[in-house]
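can u do me a favor
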């Protein structure tokens, strides 16, 4: 065994040890932060009953495994450095406008293609106007983190808007949905001659599809969407719900919705989180407003109810693409499979990525050297040109 091999082994041991200690710290932080308010049926404060339920050996082990998996995301540090460099610098072929207010006190970043050596005020024809909705378990994330997704799409001639939204605890899912809908309206007004497309990852895929389903109620697609009472946090702002002609026009101009590793059945996903031992610390239940709201805020359930009332699957005036990794341990493949069954077959495209994890579909859009880059981008290109 050479000196270099010994050094590599020592370095690996040090990194694994550090990851182990960091994971233990994350477990402690998650338990202290999440357990008191997240045990269904338990008091909102820390109690002996909550501790006994939440701090079993099995749960602590599952939490450690989940936390250790998060620590291992450090292997993607190079992508973090790339998006930081891109977002904080300039690129000749991409025009980035940061922090544009799109409504409801929220901001988005807008990425537009640039024509080299163009005349003043000359604009490059826009193929499509895309909204990218990022994920983060409804409780984290920011628009700047996904600038490389925008870069990939802008270099292909598209405009991309990435809105921030009120992640929990600043807002709950109804607030997030209203904000995504407002961003769609904003983009429709900004680019009245372009088709609108939505792409979302994980929780962002859930929000994108839910936003479109609730817009379908405005469009009159089905009364089945009316039971979803979307009320903003500020009750005085009820009159500002986007039930306007611009929203109807925006819905009519949607060309596609793409979900990358999305969550579509909240009750089913809660059970999956429970199997992983993370349901107490996940923001999902609190972001939904409690288990009583799971069905109303689940696209799969909404579409199943639609089929029960109409006798046929939902057939929107646009196509949907579901991309999911077959080795996704965060959101299982069945999430996308089950929701796709509730949509008319001629409206659905599906890309299953063998051996892909939860972040592979996303990172494939960020990096042209990622293993699934060609497959994911080709599938999205077909959606955008349909």
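np, heres the sequence
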């Amino acid at each position: 065994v050479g000196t270099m091999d010994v050094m590599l082994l020592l370095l690996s041991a040090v990194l694994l040890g550090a990851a182990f200690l960091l994971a233990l710290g994350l477990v402690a932080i998650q338990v202290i932060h999440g357990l008191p308010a997240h045990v269904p049926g338990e008091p909102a404060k820390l109690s002996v009953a909550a501790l006994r339920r939440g701090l079993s050996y099995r749960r602590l082990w599952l939490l450690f495994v989940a936390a250790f998996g998060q620590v291992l995301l450090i292997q993607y540090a190079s992508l973090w450095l790339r998006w930081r460099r891109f977002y904080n610098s300039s690129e000749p072929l991409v025009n980035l406008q940061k922090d544009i207010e799109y409504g409801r006190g929220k901001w988005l970043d807008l990425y537009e293609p640039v024509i080299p050596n163009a005349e003043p005020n000359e604009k490059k024809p826009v193929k499509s106007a895309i909204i990218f909705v990022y994920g983060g378990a409804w409780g984290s994330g920011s628009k700047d983190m996904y600038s490389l997704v925008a870069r990939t799409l802008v270099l292909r001639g598209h405009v991309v808007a990435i809105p921030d939204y009120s992640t929990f605890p600043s807002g709950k899912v109804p607030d997030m949905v209203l904000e995504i809908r407002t961003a769609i309206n904003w983009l429709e007004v900004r680019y009245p001659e372009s088709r609108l497309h939505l792409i979302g990852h994980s929780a962002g895929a859930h929000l994108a599809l839910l936003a479109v389903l609730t817009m379908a109620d405005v469009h009159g697609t089905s009364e089945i969407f009316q039971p979803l009472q979307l009320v903003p946090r500020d009750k005085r702002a009820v009159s500002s719900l986007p039930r306007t002609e611009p929203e109807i026009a925006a819905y009519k101009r949607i060309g596609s919705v793409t979900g990358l590793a999305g969550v579509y059945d909240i009750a089913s996903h809660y059970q999956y989180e429970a199997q992983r031992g993370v349901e107490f610390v996940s923001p999902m239940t609190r972001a939904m407003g409690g288990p009583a709201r799971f069905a109303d805020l689940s696209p799969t359930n909404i579409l199943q109810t639609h089929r029960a009332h109409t006798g046929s699957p939902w057939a929107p005036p646009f196509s949907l693409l579901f991309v999911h990794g077959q080795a996704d341990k965060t959101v299982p493949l069945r999430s996308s499979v089950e929701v796709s069954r509730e949509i008319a077959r001629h409206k659905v495209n599906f890309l299953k990525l063998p051996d892909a994890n939860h972040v592979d579909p996303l990172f494939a859009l960020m990096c042209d050297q990622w293993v699934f880059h060609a497959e994911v981008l080709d599938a999205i290109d077909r959606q955008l040109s349909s």
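The longest strand covers residues 94-103. hope that helps!!
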